[in-house]
Design brief:
Number of domains: 1
Largest sheet: 6 strands, mixed
CATH topology: Purple Acid Phosphatase, chain A, domain 2
Distance between the termini: 22 Å
Radius of gyration: 16 Å
Shape: globular
CATH superfamily: Metallo-dependent phosphatases
CATH class: Alpha Beta
Number of helices: 5
Order of helices and strands: HEHEHEEEEHEEEHEEEEE
Helix content: 10-25%
Number of strands: 14
Strand order of the largest sheet: 3-4-7-10-12-11
C-alpha cells in the first residue's frame, strides 16, 4: 500500500521484492506533486512494471487530468468497484476543502455521493481506498484535532469493509480500527513509508514499513 508518492519514484527499487510478491498495489492518492496526466502515468507504469495489479485514487495534489486518466483506465478506483479474486475494491479520490489551493478538493456530499453510487452493487468482502481519512481516528489527527471525513466514516460504518487505506496527512501514519474495519495510513512514500497487508478470510494483518532515502532524494 502506497500513499502520497508526490512523484518520487526513487524508492521503488527498495520495495521491489515486496511489490513483486503482492497480489495488488493500492495507491491512496497524491500520485504527483501538482503534476499532469503524463506525470501520473509515469508513476503508475513504474509500479505496474514490477508485476502486480495497481488500483489507485487521485489525491488533492493531483489535478483534473489525473482524475480523468484514472477514470479512463483500468487502475482507477474513484467512484468504481473493481473485483480482484474474491475481494471488491472501491475508492474515492481527492480531499475535503482545506486550503482551497489544491486542485482536487470536494465537500462531504461529494464523498458520500461518490461512494454510495459506486457501491450500490457491492457484495461480500470489501476494501476501501481513499485519500482523505475517515473522521475521528488516530489517522486524521492534525494539531490535536480531527480533520477527517464524516462521509467516509459513515460509509465504513455502513458497509464494514475489511480494510480501508487512506493518506493525505503525512504526520498521521498508523493503524486504527473502526468497528471491525482495519484502517491504515501507510505514510508518505516520498519519505520512505509504505505498508503491507494480508487478508485471509476475514482476518487482516497490516505491517507498516519504511526504507531509507538519502536527503537529496526527498526534496520537492
Amino acid at each position: 500500500m502506497l500513499a502520497d508518492i508526490h512523484g518520487h519514484l526513487s524508492g521503488l527499487d527498495a520495495i521491489r521484492r515486496d511489490i513483486a510478491d503482492a497480489d495488488a498495489v493500492l495507491v491512496a492518492g497524491d500520485i504527483t506533486h501538482f503534476g499532469q496526466g503524463p506525470d501520473a502515468q509515469a508513476v503508475l507504469d513504474a509500479i505496474a512494471a514490477l508485476g502486480p495489479d495497481v488500483l489507485a485514487v487521485h489525491g488533492n495534489c493531483d489535478g483534473p487530468q489525473i482524475k480523468d486518466l484514472l477514470s479512463q483506465g483500468r487502475m482507477g478506483l474513484n467512484g468504481r468497484v473493481i473485483t480482484l479474486g474474491d475481494l471488491q475494491f472501491v475508492g474515492a479520490g481527492g480531499s475535503l476543502l482545506c486550503s482551497g489551493r489544491t486542485p482536487s478538493e470536494q465537500d462531504e456530499q461529494g464523498f458520500a455521493q461518490t461512494l454510495q453510487t459506486a457501491c450500490q452493487a457491492c457484495r461480500g468482502r470489501l476494501v476501501l481506498v481513499t485519500h482523505q481519512p475517515p473522521y475521528g481516528t488516530r489517522l486524521d489527527l492534525v494539531g490535536g484535532r480531527h480533520a477527517g471525513s464524516t462521509s467516509i466514516r459513515a460509509f465504513i460504518e455502513e458497509k464494514r469493509p475489511l480494510l480501508a487505506i487512506c493518506g493525505h496527512f503525512h504526520e498521521a501514519i498508523g493503524i486504527d480500527k473502526l468497528g471491525q474495519t482495519t484502517i491504515v495510513n501507510p505514510g508518505p512514500f516520498k519519505t520512505g513509508h509504505y505498508a503491507k497487508a494480508q487478508i485471509i478470510e476475514d482476518q487482516v494483518e497490516v505491517e507498516l514499513r519504511q526504507f531509507h532515502l538519502a536527503v537529496e532524494q526527498v526534496k520537492d
